[in-house]
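Researcher: Let's do a round of design. I'm pasting the structure tokens now; please hold your answer until I've finished.
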């Protein structure tokens, strides 16, 4: 609606102003610092159907320290109501899903510094989404591996997990 778009614009503008003001306060307190602050944001529609819309939001923020922080968040929406769908509303049989998804996760982490092995309890990520190429599990840095491992993305073709997904007629 135009009201929510108007509020979003104000919220974004307010967030930018707050970020800039924090940087000015930092520079005022530490004028000798050469640190430059940076914030980047991007959004992408991953999948859209009559049943679900999946969106990826990517942010990178660097306000000092050893490195900036890259974070990807998936949001899933009911296109008819606009309501956000939680991860528990995407999968109808979690144990079946975990069993079917494990080989794909193991393949995704085979060259990463992580403790995930064949007999590991399957760690469900904070971010899951539908895409045109399959169901995506995304683990942000520190979620299942150290920062140096980066993002761990596991895309599972629908034919392996469709029976465990709520929206399986994609």
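Researcher: That's everything. Go ahead.
Model: Designed sequence:
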């Amino acid at each position: 609606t135009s009201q929510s778009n108007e509020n979003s614009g104000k919220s974004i503008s307010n967030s930018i102003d707050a970020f800039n003001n924090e940087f000015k306060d930092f520079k005022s307190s530490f004028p000798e610092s050469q640190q430059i602050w940076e914030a980047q944001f991007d959004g992408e529609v991953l999948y859209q159907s009559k049943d679900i819309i999946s969106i990826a939001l990517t942010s990178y923020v660097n306000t000092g320290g050893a490195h900036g922080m890259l974070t990807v968040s998936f949001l899933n929406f009911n296109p008819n109501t606009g309501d956000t769908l939680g991860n528990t509303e995407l999968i109808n049989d979690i144990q079946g899903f975990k069993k079917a998804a494990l080989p794909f996760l193991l393949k995704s982490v085979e060259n990463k510094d992580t403790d995930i092995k064949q007999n590991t309890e399957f760690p469900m990520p904070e971010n899951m989404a539908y895409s045109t190429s399959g169901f995506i599990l995304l683990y942000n840095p520190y979620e299942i591996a150290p920062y140096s491992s980066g993002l761990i993305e596991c895309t599972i073709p629908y034919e392996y997990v469709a029976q465990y997904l709520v929206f399986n007629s994609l």
